[in-house]
């Protein structure tokens, strides 16, 4: 299984290996969830300031957060679905705050890589339509992300 993953580290704080590990994890999850091959995802690693700007603009919350996802398959008001000839499935964008990931890894007592992986999977599941607005949705999504991380071997 191979997704087309476009990873960008705007902070220049991650190693190539850390970025590749996140990509391997997302591909593993895509394989587990039987996502079509060659589907596209972008992952951008940003500063707290940048994610706060995005959070303020798109979610009306003026504070830094750890991860934000923008699902491309959710149609906005007035948008129409494109049904095309062999177009790859574009899942969307995952934006992760590197400083928040470092802070939360320390707070939860696990590795920075575990936290990055957790945030990437959390964002990826949002792209696939999972959510945690209700207790039932939260249980389903959080169980799935925990199972994926355990099966991949990225444990606390």
Question: If you had to describe this structure to a student in words, what would you say it looks like?
Answer:
The chain has 156 residues and is of the alpha/beta class. The chain has a single domain (4-152), classed as Metalloproteases ("zincins"), catalytic domain (Collagenase (Catalytic Domain)). Helices cover 47% and strands 17% of the residues. It has helices spanning 16-32, 48-59, 98-108, 112-127, 135-152, and strands at 4-9, 40-46, 67-71, 90-97. The longest helix is centred in the C-terminal third of the chain and has 18 residues, at 135-152. The chain starts with a strand and ends with a helix. The mean pLDDT is 91.
